[in-house]
Amino acid sequence: MKMISKENRRSKAINCKHYIDGEFIESDQLKTFNNVNPATEEIIGLVAEGGKAEVDRAVSAARNALNGPWKTFTDNKRSTILRKIGDLILEIKEELAVLETLDTGKPYSLALEMDIKRSAHNFHFFADYLTTLGNESYNQDNIALHYSIRRPVGVVGMINPWNLPLLLLTWKLAPCLAAGNTTVMKPAELTPMTATKLMEICKEAGLPDGVVNLVHGFGADSAGAALSEHPDVDAITFTGETKTGTEIMKAAAPTLKKVSFELGGKNPNIIFADANLEEVIETTLKSSFMNQGEVCLCGSRIYVENELYEEFIEKLTNRTKALKIGDPFNEETNIGAVIGKDHYEKVIRYIELAKSEGATILTGGGRPEQFEKGYFIEPTIITGVNRYSRCVREEIFGPVVTVMPFYTEEEVIEQANDTHYGLGATIWTNELRRAHRVASLIEAGIIWVNTWYLRDLRTPFGGMKHSGIGREGGAHSFEFYSEVSNITIKL
Ligand code: NAD
């Protein structure tokens, strides 16, 4: 992998403007906020701060574009543009990976191999999927023919988080465009750069002006709230915290917007003693600490069958101690910085809480000594924690896991389900019947057996309980981004 020199990184950072009706524009009164690199704490650029005025303009551009040339584009033409966007992302993948790394503090290697390549794949996947779609049709005893047609929902508002900025934005944008909608997007205030760069790509790929619009800003009392409550937005798709989801739902309710929510998780990893321990350790290391644990699907509550418990924690601890934490641009780095000061303090507070409750910190437990600057947190494994502790019940969203032993299948299912969340889970066992049985009883939208993070974009993705509303992926995405009408013809 080609690494980027220190001098080159800083110079790659961009100032971020809004993108409305095909033009990059400043905010009214040139309002901006600072963009900070969490690995160095340096200000790396300025971001236009949008609010109601900018959202109004963007929504109006998106509304007009719905009835412009975009409306006449065939499925094939939309598919060609989506494919081109994917290709252009890959053409500048290193540049995008630098921007993602500067914004998030994640390892450059991860940004390149996962975030950016998967962003391109999102477009390539939906470009292909779009051309395979059919419609329902029923012949009712030769009395009538019923068939459905699909049309765009209209103007879709997209509100995105900071952890996988381009990956999650494109996971929404690609199907939204595939289904013929127009959009106003608000990326997370902490990670504005790749979304901005993507706008250049959309233009170059041939999207008509106004189809894609981008407004930077904050959430409450800012661009996010203005978008959620805008009367001319037809649907809101949001990925972020559960409590933000409730705010957005309230704001969207008076105008009855369609909503799709991908929210928080507190995902259990259930490890039975018959599992292949080497595979378990290898994958659990990733499901615990990939992207500094800042992935909604990370397994932060690890339950291990008692007879395997001691061996498991010894092996996981040794492997965790060997992880390299530091400069995200260093090729060796496994763990970068967490997203920013507030989040750093929140994660540290949970670790301190565990200590004050008498838990054992097997490794990690705070800030690594060698760094003067940057929001670095050691990968941390906690044992001996009470199942009712906030550390076990609340989403920490950092490089922190708790490990607990269990004795019976019933007991571990009960504990795994004892949460408001229901996003993901992993089950490790080589016993076929148990795998099916336990998987069917775990209350989560995404359940992996003997693996983690293995994705096929056709499958339903989303959470149950307080982890989400609706599913994304393949046909599920089209369901959200389309209005379906049934037509009945009397024969
Ligand atoms: P967040 O909810 O704080 O912010 C997400 C976005 O919402 C940001 O763009 C923010 O500006 C905006 N926002 C905040 N308040 C708002 C309001 N009142 N109205 C409108 N918009 C508002 O989430 P975050 O901290 O950026 O992301 C981390 C969270 O995202 C975690 O809970 C994580 O589990 C979740 N997440 C879920 C998935 C999933 O697929 N289920 C994927 C990634 C992240």
Q: What is this structure, in a nutshell?
A:
The protein has 491 residues and is of the alpha/beta class. 40% of the residues lie in helices and 20% in strands. The chain has helices at residues 6-12, 52-66, 75-91, 93-104, 108-130, 165-178, 193-205, 223-229, 242-252, 277-289, 306-321, 341-356, 390-393, 409-416, 432-441, 474-481; strands at 18-20, 23-25, 32-36, 43-48, 137-140, 144-152, 155-159, 182-186, 212-214, 235-239, 258-262, 267-271, 299-305, 360-363, 380-383, 400-406, 424-428, 446-449, 468-469, 482-490.
Describe the structure.
It is an enzyme of class 1 (oxidoreductase). Keywords: NAD, Oxidoreductase. This is 5-carboxymethyl-2-hydroxymuconate semialdehyde dehydrogenase. The protein is of the alpha/beta class. The chain has two domains: 18-263 and 467-490, Aldehyde Dehydrogenase, Chain A, domain 1; 268-449, 3-Layer(aba) Sandwich (Aldehyde Dehydrogenase, Chain A, domain 2), CATH 3.40.309. It is 40% helix and 20% strand. The protein contains 16 helices and 20 strands. It has helices at residues 6-12, 52-66, 75-91, 93-104, 108-130, 165-178, 193-205, 223-229, 242-252, 277-289, 306-321, 341-356, 390-393, 409-416, 432-441, 474-481, and strands spanning 18-20, 23-25, 32-36, 43-48, 137-140, 144-152, 155-159, 182-186, 212-214, 235-239, 258-262, 267-271, 299-305, 360-363, 380-383, 400-406, 424-428, 446-449, 468-469, 482-490. Strands 14-15-16-13-12-17-18 form a seven-stranded mixed sheet, sandwiched between helices. It has a six-stranded mixed sheet with strand order 9-8-7-10-11-19, sandwiched between helices. Strands 5-6-20 form a three-stranded antiparallel sheet. Strand 7, helix 6 and strand 8 form a beta-alpha-beta unit. Helix 6 crosses helix 16 and helix 8 crosses helix 9. The chain binds nicotinamide-adenine-dinucleotide. Residues 159-163, 168, 186, 188-189, 218-220, 224-225, 228, 239-241, 244, 247-248, 262-265, 296, 395, 397, 423, 463, 468 line the site of nicotinamide-adenine-dinucleotide (NAD).
